[in-house]
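Input sequence (170 aa), recorded before submission:
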Amino acid sequence: MNLRQTLENRIRLRDIRLLCSEAAARPDVAEQLYALTLDPDARVAYNALWVLTHLPAADCRALLHPRRDRLIDCALGETHVGKLRLLLTLLDKLPPERNELRGDYLDFCLERINSTEPYAIRAFCLKQAYAQCRHYPELLAELRLAIDLMERSELPPGLRCARRNLLRRL
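Predicted structure, token format:
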């Protein structure tokens, strides 16, 4: 099977399940999927990211945790909204440890919490900002300020729920 050719076309959930089972059984397929996330063809890269978001949690962590910094670099420079959402979805599955704080990524997330980005991106940035700040009380205070700036009345239900859940943790 030529994985790139498969990802050039529209893929469906059954295709994703098949690719995930192959990636779980064969590490070389998982490696190819990751490599195709960097493909210059936007559709191929998007579909590869989409498949990776469906990998079982253990397989996803094993494959992507060593590449977490590269995924962050991709997210920081991504202009395609769909690919950014999928990158943030993958990063959400890879919570940072205390020693893995990246200031540029934290700033990126804090900036987008109160931006005009789509709601899903704002919600993921909210979750990612908390995941990075949770070990540092001074950063939690900065996150709290960003959350307080969110307009409660104008938030859609999903973002309002993410905000409320995060406030409970703080």
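Checked by second reader. The chain has two domains: 1-66, 95-170.
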